[in-house]
């Protein structure tokens, strides 16, 4: 699988990027938001904007992750002011374990949830997470530490 360094004007390169990152990005934003309607639009729009910007985007992979997470985070913040998160359904192998993990993630504050998903699902480093979420590295480290601890506690409680 070829890594993309720059998109330029080629829709084919963006197609390769979408093939490599699209499904994984969608699952990460879904794990964070736990709402398909919050996930679909930001992910699609991130790739559309990347295509429009073409050669302006120096690191398309990082750019689409940031461009998808920021509006999803804003939408989630707006929606949680007025109503709880939607009850989302998961399909596929290991469904029970995925449902249990998503339910535990749902109980975390949104910033902790975002940092955990970006670190342990997407594989981003602290400085990359800080850029995606628009926060400092120190804040990301605090959210990671507290989020891991709280997630562990929640999962242990659920086992009892």
Low-confidence stretches: 1-9, 83-87
Question: How large is the share of residues in beta strands?
Answer: under 5%
The geometry reads as globular
Give the CATH superfamily: PhyR, sigma-like (SL) domain
Features:
7 helices, 160 residues, mainly alpha, disordered N terminus, Butyryl-CoA Dehydrogenase, subunit A, domain 3, 74% helix
Summarize the structure.
This protein is an all-alpha fold and 160 residues long. It has seven helices and no strands.
SSE layout and pairing:
Layout lengths: L10 H23 L2 H18 L6 H23 L12 H12 L3 H12 L4 H8 L3 H23 L1
Helix pairs in contact: 1-2, 1-3, 1-5, 2-3, 3-6, 4-7, 5-7, 6-7
Provide a descriptive summary of the structure in words.
The protein has helices at residues 11-33, 36-53, 60-82, 95-106, 110-121, 126-133, 137-159. The N and C termini lie far apart (43 Å). It is built from 7 helices and no strands. With 160 residues, the chain is mainly α. The longest helix is centred in the N-terminal third of the chain and has 23 residues, at 11-33. Residues 1-9 and 83-87 have low confidence and may be disordered. The protein has one domain: PhyR, sigma-like (SL) domain (Butyryl-CoA Dehydrogenase, subunit A, domain 3).
